[in-house]
Design goal:
Blueprint (H helix, E strand, L loop, with lengths): L4 H7 L8 H18 L2 E5 L12 E5 L6 H8 L7 E7 H6 L8 E4 L4 H14 L5 E5 L18 H8 L4 E10 L7 E6 L3 E2 L8 H25 L5 E6 L6 H13 L17
Parallel strand pairs: 1-7, 2-5, 2-6, 3-4, 3-5
Antiparallel strand pairs: 1-9, 6-7, 6-8
Helix pairs in contact: 1-5, 2-3, 5-6, 6-7
Length: about 270
């Protein structure tokens, strides 16, 4: 971070109004929307299980799809006692102004002004010990197989500017298993304690966060290939089956056999001929 920027970060102390009830309502909407369009939202049991963190929290996630902000709302349930914030493009915020009251703030991505906006606002947010900032630090959509996950420098500058708190990597992947709708998979990585790394430069922070996110993505990719829902905690269960005449035939076949119909494509009532 430049010395010219640091004073501006310190002077920024006014946050936009945030309505906790609206945030919770939008989280409920995100859950319902995911249940309608996904087979499930699942969180790895083998990763770092979210817990109570002392001080501000920065959740840094990869950015594979349009779904990521909605998944962030859903996954915020793991930190229900905290205040949640996230950046969003100014143009998008103009279209959905109510999101500003749900904890989203506008930035201009890919510009020097946008980087300054992000750092000033994020610094003010993280001055509160119960604040959580969700950041898709790649700054663009990126395939989950892209290695390393190149991050914008702003997240490193932000971590370097803090005296305490935690950076928590979060890997997200959308994949298809046995159903016509996709699985949304997530895994939390090992947290990086800011106070224990006060001597790091912004560049060192960016490299360390990239490496932690890459390890978390690799671990999640291996779990996704196992196609085993038992190694995940299912936090949203959505639609299953194909629908239409195909599911009608499966239901009829299960009834003639005296079996309980299960709408999952790989269920027992769907085997055989």
């Amino acid at each position: 971070m430049t010395t010219a920027l640091a004073p501006r970060l310190r002077r920024c102390s006014t946050l936009p109004p945030r309505w906790p009830r609206l945030f919770r309502l939008f989280r409920c909407y995100a859950r319902r929307y995911a249940a309608k369009h996904l087979h499930a939202v699942r969180v790895s049991k083998c990763g770092t299980l979210p817990r109570a963190f002392d001080g501000p929290l920065i959740v840094v996630l990869n950015h594979p799809s349009w779904w990521d902000p909605l998944l962030g709302f859903i996954l915020s349930e793991f930190f229900s006692d905290r205040d949640h914030w996230a950046p969003i493009e100014v143009a998008a915020l103009r279209r959905y102004r109510f999101l500003a009251r749900a904890g989203l703030f506008g930035i201009e991505p890919g510009t020097t002004r946008g980087a300054s906006q992000f750092l000033r606002m994020a610094s003010a947010i993280l001055a509160e010990p119960r604040a959580t900032l969700w950041v898709t630090a790649q700054g663009r959509f990126a395939d989950v197989r892209e290695r390393p996950p190149r991050l914008r420098a702003g997240v490193g500058h932000l971590a370097q500017s803090l005296t305490a708190g935690v950076v928590l990597p979060l890997a997200i992947e959308m994949t298809f298993w046995n159903e016509r709708t996709p699985e949304a998979l997530a895994r939390f990585g090992e947290p990086l304690d800011i106070a224990a790394r006060r001597e790091w430069t912004a560049e060192e922070w960016t490299a360390a966060i990239e490496a932690a996110l890459e390890r978390t993505q690799d671990a999640l990719a291996a779990e996704a290939m196992r196609r085993d829902p038992d190694i995940f905690e299912t936090i949203v269960r959505g639609r299953a089956g194909v629908g239409g005449i195909y599911d009608y035939w499966r239901r009829l076949r299960a009834w003639t056999r005296g079996e309980k119909f299960r709408d999952e494509h790989g269920s027992a009532s769907d085997t055989g001929t």
